């Protein structure tokens, strides 16, 4: 078995192994168990290695290089839809923080005064609110293009 590629995570290595299998080449993800049981160790072991037999090494390397270059991409383009601005998500989060229990299950005024954590949270909440209002104003003004 020879190493033909290294990947940052196990999922990318599995996709490459599946791609090679679809092209008739048996590939093996070497650190699969370590990477799935303890993902933080992926970096410690030097990434996830993709191995194949000595006979298939050249063909597998060429196929992976072609895939990275986009040789198998279709003309249809990207099927990922553009992100839609949804202010309701922020409204729900802000309402939950203001009306709800606050941080860590403690009400904001649990002992009659604001703790430093709550105060910093409220400052961040205020900044987020200002940014949110500015983004809605820009969106309504057409800065983000057509809806």
What does this structure look like?
There is one protein chain. The chain has two domains: 68 residues, Alpha-Beta Plaits; 54 residues. It has 147 residues and is mainly alpha-helical. It has six helices and three strands, in the order βαβααβααα. The chain has a three-stranded antiparallel β-sheet, covered by helices on one side.
Give a brief description.
This protein has 147 residues and is mainly alpha-helical.
H/I helix tally: 6
Q: Report the end-to-end length measured between terminal Cα atoms.
A: 53 Å
CATH topology assignment of the largest domain: Alpha-Beta Plaits
Mean pLDDT over the full residue set: 78
Fraction in helix: 40-55%
- Portion in beta strands: 5-15%
The sequence of SSEs as H and E is EHEHHEHHH
Oligomer: single chain
Please tell me what the overall shape is.
elongated
* Count of the separate structural domains: 2
Helix and strand arrangement:
Blueprint: E1 2-7, H1 10-22, E2 27-29, H2 32-37, H3 41-44, E3 48-52, H4 57-69, H5 87-99, H6 116-140
Antiparallel strand pairs: 1-3, 2-3
